[in-house]
Amino acid sequence: MMLRVNGLSRRVLPLLAMVLSLLLSSGCAMVTMKQVAPTDYLANKRGDVLTSGKLSAASQETLSVIGLDEDLCAKDTVACQKTLEDTVVLPEEQRLSALSELWVKTALGLSPKPKDRDKHPMSDAALDAWLEAARYAYAYLFFSGRTPSDRAFEDRQTQVRDYYNYAAEQTAAVVFKRARARALEGEDYNAPVAGELWTLTSDFDELRMPSIPTSMVSASSVSFAGLRSTYRRDGFGAELVVVMDPPKLVAPADGQKAAIPQYSEMSAINATALLRFKGDTLQQVLDTTQVLFDVYSPESTESVDLHGEKVPLAGNFTAAYGMWLAQSGFATQSLRTLFGLSEGIAEPHMYLMQPWDPNRRIIFMLHGLGSSPEAWVNVANEVMGDPELRRHFQVWQVYYPTNAPIALNRFEINQAFNNTLKHFDPTGSSPASKDMVFIGHSMGGVLARLLVTSSGDALWDQLLANYDLKGERLKRVEAKLGPLLHFTAEPSVERAIFIAAPHKGTDIAGNRIGRLIGRLVRLPITLLGKFEDVFQTLQQAETQSAQPTKLQIPNSIDNLKASDPFVKAAGALPIMPGLKYHSIIAQRKPEVPLEQSDDGLVPYWSAHLEGAVSEKVIISGHSVQETPQAVLEIRRILREDLKEVGDAHP
Fold first, then answer.
1. Taking the model in full, what pTM does it have?
2. Which of 68, 186, 362, 472 would be 63's cystine partner, CB 3.0–4.6 Å?
3. Neighbours of 600 (CB within 10 A)
4. Using the 8-state DSSP alphabet, how is residue 199 labeled?
């Protein structure tokens, strides 16, 4: 009996195996289930060719529907793309988005690595692939049946927008190099750029570039130490920085007078590039070889109209500023200036932090002793990064020789500021020329206060009281010192913020260390030559001593001594009536009573001003303007200012 069963088993088992094999091959699939970790779920859902090097789950599903997969497409990319292009059963969104990603994968394979691009420029084949990737993304976004706003919450649209933006960025690098080469030969920068299959017509006019750019850099490819935040706006287009040669601020070594400009816009400009494919229907867009390469200023343009849709424009508001500062050399040059060494600067220079806009009010920032526009690195970045403030304000900064006497710097900064304003707004009628805000740190705060103060005859009378000046002597002195000691307040300033400013001087400037630093400070030879005869005349006319000591032109350290006659007289001058002003004061040691405290350099009694709308005391050293608390206070004041001024400046 057992033998029969075993014999039967030997006959039945092969039969059962055959039946099981037939069942498995007949399409009756076995479904199993497993848990997926949240991190794996998000990686599978959002990963794509740009983030992982592999096609997204959405594109892999699309290929699976038409009997393809990523491995097959890798072996014959052209056939895979052709099959997908010819397939009519797929929804347009699904087909176009997958085609865009496939072309990105192709373009990545054809493009040189970023580190090799200088030696190996992008080929026409790679450029064609990037344009195809952008074309299909553009078609998906605007010609696939639904509008971008209909898909606002869909991950797939975000992926496809990224394919477009990245393709536009890669295309921009090629267009820029070819346009620059032609411009250097005297041709129009906006002349069409032709490839093997495409013709790209450029428009750089909105940037108002003052010269031929030297480079165009992807904003996403750079990061900065020293900047707390990077401010950008999500949207459509490639985020770029257009870089030009900076202005020369130093005269030639041979001593000849050079034409040094008083102002310049930043040599690095934020830009956003779009690729517009000609056509009003899906088929026209898929057939065209004509592309418009439009470049915008993200500060000036927040959105664009494309095929009946208002589309937000991408923008990076930190990259250009960071590149400008990183390449400026200010840190070394400002110290060389203070100590009268070569390669310093001899007169103020105005910088516009973004292209001139007649409808945005001016915030004017003045740095302190031994410093430069780098002192405002986080203040300016935070102001420009705040959408509400950026919409209403533009930032100007001055770079000035901090070794020069305060009266001379006030005079020359005032001239440079007004000459710059007159250049951009000759009639003074634009909103930008009204209701300005001045912000000064340290000695820059003293200068800012003097710019919003009228001297009357107070400073001049003080000079006359100490010297017997008549006839030719009086004329010589008045010609040189009169303009420095007679001044009126800037009439269009509506508000001022003084930060750690020694309005009444500081005892530290007159102590042992201050005197030592003062002896190291050297005035420019040009300044000594310009005023030496005046001080000789004053010495001859001195009335206070039978044996007058040799008079010397005071430097900035001399002017900051609490005992200095100029700072004492200037500190007593009244601020312009109606001006709203604020104080931000640093207190180094919180345990010290406020009235007896200081920030290491400036005592509270010197920084404090009666009549201030607000006074913010921050536990900090002298460089308080860099602290988050000070930046937040500046932003608070500016936002309050917008409410008070109203909608006069749209």
1. 0.86
2. 68
3. 13
4. E
Tokens of 445: 């705060």
What pLDDT digit, counting tens, does each position of 535-567 carry?
777 777 765 554 555 566 777 778 888 888 888
Listed in sequence order, the DSSP H helices in 55-91 are 57-65, 70-75, 77-86
Cβ 522 vs Cβ 588: under 8 Å = no
Look at residues 374, 397, 393, 372 and name the one whose alpha carbon lies nearest to residue 384. Answer: 393
472, with CB counted inside 10 A (0-12, 13-18, 19+), is exposed
DSSP 575: B
Strands 199-203 and 232-233: unpaired
DSSP 8-state code for residue 442: T
Residue among 496, 502, 498, 497 nearest 599 (CA): 502
β-strands 315-316, 238-243: how paired?
A: unpaired
If one counts every other C-beta atom within 10 angstroms of the C-beta of residue 457, the result is 10
Q: Among 39-43, 252-256, 327-331, 607-611, whose mean pLDDT is lowest?
A: 252-256
pLDDT digits (tens, 9 = 90+) for 115-147: 766 677 888 899 999 999 999 999 999 999 999
Query: Around Cβ 218, how many Cβ atoms within 10 Å?
Result: 18
DSSP 588: S
User: Position of tokens 């536990």?
Assistant: 619
Q: What angle do CA 282, 287, 291 make, to 5 degrees?
A: 95
C-alpha 260/C-alpha 257 separation (Å) is 9
Counting Cβ atoms within 10 Å, is residue 621 exposed (0-12), middle (13-18) or buried (19+)? Answer: middle
| Helix (DSSP H) and strand (DSSP E) numbers for the chain | 23, 18
- What is the SS3 assignment for 124? helix
303's enclosing H/E stretch is strand 303-306
